[in-house]
Amino acid sequence: MKVGLCFNLKKPSEDPLADDLYAEWDDEETIEAVRSALAGKHRVILVEGGEEAFEKFRKFRPDIVFNIAEGLHGVSRELQIPAMLEMLRIPYTGSDPLTLALCLDKSLAKEVMSYHGIPTPPFVVVHNIKDMKNLPPFPLMVKPLWEGSSKGIGNKALVRTSKQLKEQVSTILTKYGQPALMEKYLPGREFTVALLGNGTDLEILPIVEIHFEQLPPEINPIYSYEAKWIWDTVEKPLEIFTCPAKISSRLAKKIRNVCRKAFLALRCRDWCRIDIRLDDSGEPNILELNPLPGILPNPDANSCFPKAARTAGLSYNGLINRVLQTACQRVGLKL
Question: Which pLDDT value is given to residue 218?
Answer without folding.
Answer: 79
